[in-house]
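Hi L.,

As promised, Dihydroorotase:
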Amino acid sequence: MKSVLIKNANIVNEGQIIKGDVLIEEGYIVEIADSISMKSANTKIIDADERYLLPGMIDDQVHFREPGLTHKANIESESKAAIAGGTTTFIEMPNTVPQATTIELLEEKFDIAAKTSWANYSFMFGGTNDNLDEILKVDPKKVAGLKLFLGSSTGNMLVDDPKTLENIFSKTKLLISAHCEDETTIKKNLAAYQEEYGDDIPMECHPKIRSEEACYLSSSRAIKLAEKTGARLHVFHVSTERETHLFTNKKPLAKKKITAEVCIHHLWFTDQDYKTKGSKIKWNPAVKTEKDRDGLLKALLDDRIDVIASDHAPHTLEEKNNNYMNAPSGGPLVQHTLVALLEMYHKGKISIEKIVEKTAHNPAILFQIKERGYIRKGYKADLVLVDLNSPWTVKKENILYKCGWSPFEGTTFKSRVTHTLVNGTVVYENNKFANKSTAERLTFDRE
């Protein structure tokens, strides 16, 4: 494997920005110093020219739609979009077709990724009301965790039996990641709006149907169950200011038993954007008010919320262009998450150091991912070089998602990703995919 020397970079790592060089050999970072001389004629030199070198993003929640839904996306297409956006590692969800609710079906997804993924990968195992025996077979050192849908599921993945939930929480050693929305509340709200509008419910009603109350009821219930059973719980895509008060910043992340994630769309959009974006910003949980958006950012900055993710969940435009009742929730985001966060940096809302903490360091800590998430000697060289002053506009021709659209279409970002390295290999360079990725299955430092 060719060695790589990155020179003259602003290295962002562990709360600091230092100017220096990084040497990579055999996929690992072997030296970080003020100045490093070329060791071999076989070394590829990248002059960063004072651009910013970040650990690659670790996105802990994506839906890449393979197997079974590949008209929307697949692991190859979406992992390439991730690489172009500065995400070098992803954790994918189990609600594919078939659902990853047995060891055999889970390993089939790993086999696909081993052949086609451009980014490092792991997958969540899916819980149901009747697969506890299978859950207990999962090796925590080889699988990211267990995904439970406590609301808004596809197929039979809604886990709504209280006894089953308590059994799972009590017996699994896996980290439990949960989608929290109360189905009873949502169904009641939906019935009221259907009575008024039929199937043509205005898209602006989405956050009233999938309401703050629905989110809070489910999140608080899951947290109480985790506290009762001692389970390790991670609440996905927190979307309301009210929910942020369920989480604490009194402990360091490594000692927390209950953690939280926020997604880029809940930090960027508000309910006012439904007027222009319509179903393109229809997600579950819903994008809510400006107060909620500001409260989520505050909780992120004060460390009640631990990580930022994309919840990348593509659908075709044809599917999204249906009326409210028939337009699926979710949208493609993984290519644009980092540049959107850097736009927030330019606006003075968040520091680059905090972005790195929440997108790389903290996911590595939270999931106990081995040798990733930092720019450290002895760690895998998953790295991203970004130019903070190279404006570009999101257009159809530069969107890499298989579905071909983005809720950010027409947005101009000041920053761009110029290079992405996966396990020491330069796989993306100046808007082109360079070498075939050397992506790897994640391993975990767990008992």
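The chain has 14 helices and 19 strands.

Thanks again for sending the construct details.

K.
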